[in-house]
Amino acid sequence: MANPKHLDYAKRSGDDAIESKNYIENEHGFASWDVEGDVFRVIQIYGDGKYWDRYLRQIAKEHRCKTAIFHTRRNPEAWKRRYNAQIVETCMMIELEY
Fold it and tell me: How far apart are CA 19 and CA 6, in angstroms?
C-alpha cells in the first residue's frame, strides 16, 4: 500500500510502482536493490541521500561488488558531483503509435 514517501517518490521520479526486491524502509526513506554478478544495482531510492549512500555501499561491500549502478530522470550532473559518479550510458525512449 502506498504511503506519503511512495507518492512523493512517484511524483518526482515518474515511476508508477515501488519495487519490492530487497526493499528497505525506515525513518530515512526507502530503497530497493539487487546484485547481478559483481554489480550492485540500486533500483529505487528515496530520502536521506547521505544515509542511503553509506547503507547501500555497506551492502555492496558485503556482496563483494566492484561497481554500483543507478539511474535518474532528474539532473544527472548533480548526482555526478554529489556521489563522484560517472555517466556511462544514455537511455533513449521512442513513443510508439499504433
Answer: 11
> Does residue 23 lie in a domain region?
yes
Spatial CA neighbour of 30 closest among 19, 41, 46 = 46
Q: Please list the residues that pair with 32 across neighbouring strands.
A: 44
Mean pLDDT of all residues in 40-66: 94
**Residues 6 or more apart in contact with residue 10 via CB below 8 angstroms:** 2, 16, 18
Give the whole-angstrom CA distance, residue 72 versus residue 41: 13
pTM value > 0.90: no
| Domain tally, the chain | 1
